[in-house]
Amino acid sequence: MKIDGFLIIPGGDFTMKHLRMIIEHQRPVVMVDRKPKGYVGDFVAGDSFYGAVELVEHLVARSHRKIAFVNGPTTISTARDRLEGYKYALQKHGIPYKAEYVYEGSSFNEEMGELAVNHFLTLPEKPTAVFAANNFIAIGIIRALRRRNMDVPNDIALSCFEKIEVSDMIKPTVTAMIQPSYNFGTIATQLLLERIEGLQIETPRQIILRPEMILGESTEQYVFPSIS
To answer: pLDDT of 155-172, one tens digit each?
Structure first.
């Protein structure tokens, strides 16, 4: 069976060694959502940097300055972009970056959220808000806090990338940055078909789509403590 082209959602930077074999066989490729280091070619993704900045600024606007971040492995481009957005937003608002407020997990699953909570609660200055790199991490954070009889958002506020699908059944609902994932697929497919049809496009195309913030209860009701 002949394969005319590839839409690829890479697992991380290690994908490049496999990608080189595809390119050597002169098959067109479009990367979707993630971009391995060293890749030069058509690419469609959401703006993870912008989304991270917006989520952190949303927490800052609600008086938080001790904002932690739970990320996945930075061998994945979205994790790198979200970390850079987190750092940029802190700097923009004059909030010192603290390495102990960043937990880099080995994956993007619920266990990483639980491990991060274990870490944050050992700190002398505990965060008042947590930004999770995705919805699975956020679920792990909620579970870990509930096991300790802690409340979201009054003990710790929470925001994340991607909607928690059962959020309408969970209280509190979670403030989330929603990626236009459907559009990733339709645009990437169009780019790939143009390559397969032989259109002479010399410059690699990079399409970055803005995500949309959906407000939830998980970032509300926090009152910054007065300094006596």
So the answer is: 999 999 998 776 445 678
